[in-house]
Amino acid sequence: MDKLTDAEVGTLVRELYIDAEPDIVFDVVSSPEYVEQWWPDEARYRLEPGSPGELVFRTAEGDEIVQQFSVVESNPPRTFSFRWTHSPGEDPAAGNSLLVTFALTASGSGTTLTMTETGFRERGWEEAELERQFREHIDGWNYFLPRLVTYVAGMEAAS
After folding, report:
1. Which residues form a coiled coil (predicted)?
2. Is residue 3 part of a domain?
3. Spatial distance between the Cα atoms of 34 and 28, rounded to a whole number of angstroms
4. Hey, how many other C-beta atoms are within 10 angstroms of the C-beta on 50?
5. How far apart are CA 57 and CA 34, in angstroms?
6. Which range marks the domain in which residue 121 is found?
7. Number of folded domains in the chain?
């Protein structure tokens, strides 16, 4: 495994173009019923900042991985952000969770979505665990974000 630089481990950023208007993309990245179609197997949360929730991922073996989730900001159709990965019972904050922000910008007939995930260094993980976690999130977003694009394309084709 190649060594990641400090800059690489600090912030994960992905930018993609989605052929749909920002209000549609906002719903797909924020509403639990849509989020379940491209990301976790179950999304249980309210769109109210600060309210606790969960994302449930099922493994190939049928095990469940439950991640804590809390909306930070919901500003349709521009920004949706949340904290996740904190321990059950903890209030999500810098140092115990990761912050994900979806920023949406109208671009031609579609939307440019910029996804940023921060907070890896603030978690206080040892270097090897920090790199492992960062790589897992790179792999995860590289898998799930294209599913988001495909899901929106299917919605647009059906309408």
Report:
1. none
2. no
3. 5
4. 11
5. 15
6. 11-158
7. 1
